[in-house]
Design brief:
single chain, 63 residues
């Protein structure tokens, strides 16, 4: 039981005193980068899906 308590005490100490947390401005900037990247990747995947749907539909019409 003592090892568990020591683990939590050390974890708390590290989170409070050793971790450098981002500023609010840095956090907002990072969030916007992730949001824009997510939208771009979503559009690319959607485009690939639509294109493959058209190609396969035309291919299946041949048979």
């Amino acid at each position: 039981m003592n090892k568990i308590r020591t683990y939590f005490q050390e974890s708390y100490h590290e989170l409070v005193h050793k971790v450098s947390w981002p500023t609010w401005q840095e956090l907002q900037s990072s969030t916007m980068i992730v949001l824009v990247a997510t939208v771009i990747i979503t559009l690319i995947v959607w485009g690939m899906d639509a294109l493959s749907n058209v190609v396969l539909t035309q291919y299946y019409k041949l048979f």
